[in-house]
Amino acid sequence: MRPSGRDISEMRPISIETGVTKHAEGSCLIRVGDTHVLCTASLEERVPPFLKNSGLGWVTAEYGMLPRATGSRMRREAAQGKQGGRTVEIQRLIGRSLRAGVDRVALGERQITVDCDVLQADGGTRCAAITGGWVALRLAVNALMKAGDVTSDPLVAPVAAVSCGIYAGQPVLDLDYAEDSRAGVDGNFVMLGGNRLIEVQMSAEGATYTRDQMGLLLDLAEKGVNELAAAQTAAVGG
């Protein structure tokens, strides 16, 4: 039995609320169970120096956790003078994942920065950030298209991510913290619409795993990502 009482292939409740900030070109608050992440997308009519005069756009991301997103207060990374290694790794993952779903030629020479701030953490924060980050990105691109600043849709397909792992010997979908902290195997699956893989992060936390077990986790991940993609589509109005 999972601590939450869920079936092994059952996601936590998903909700995505859009337009939650006044100034960002795209924004949403995504809730996956008790993990809540605020995602905003900000448009700039410039690109990093290495892309100047290339005709290519750029999508990048930043990630952070509020001090009381977890059970005990964390110091703000700004107060420590630098970002931690985990933060840097996650925001690079978010950026890579979102760019995989973007036609950078169609986007043109402009940059969209997606900020993902974890308000409350209960497992799967990077996955929720990627999923909500795409919604914020979609809304920002919609604004570009409405203004006539791009001639074709730069977004190829939805990008979403979900965690899967082996808990108490069973492959399970969408780990919360109680499972994640005790899972024998932990994995994050990032996918583009149509079940195309962008990135898989898997590690043997307490036990090794077989190729067959990885296949079962991938099947669960496809189910979860399809549910997330349906929630994304509903949130942005189709």
Automatic annotation (TrEMBL):
The keyword Nucleotidyltransferase applies. Phosphorolytic 3'-5' exoribonuclease that plays an important role in tRNA 3'-end maturation. Removes nucleotide residues following the 3'-CCA terminus of tRNAs; can also add nucleotides to the ends of RNA molecules by using nucleoside diphosphates as substrates, but this may not be physiologically important. Probably plays a role in initiation of 16S rRNA degradation (leading to ribosome degradation) during starvation. Phosphate binds at R86, G124, T125, R126. Gene3D superfamilies: GHMP Kinase, N-terminal domain. Keywords: Nucleotidyltransferase, RNA-binding, rRNA processing, Transferase, tRNA processing, tRNA-binding. Belongs to the RNase PH family. Residues 10-140, 158-223 form the Exoribonuclease phosphorolytic domain. Pfam families: RNase_PH, RNase_PH_C. CDD domains: RNase_PH_bact (cd11362). This is Ribonuclease PH. It catalyses: tRNA(n+1) + phosphate = tRNA(n) + a ribonucleoside 5'-diphosphate. One of its GO terms (molecular function) is 3'-5'-RNA exonuclease activity. It is an enzyme of class 2 (transferase).
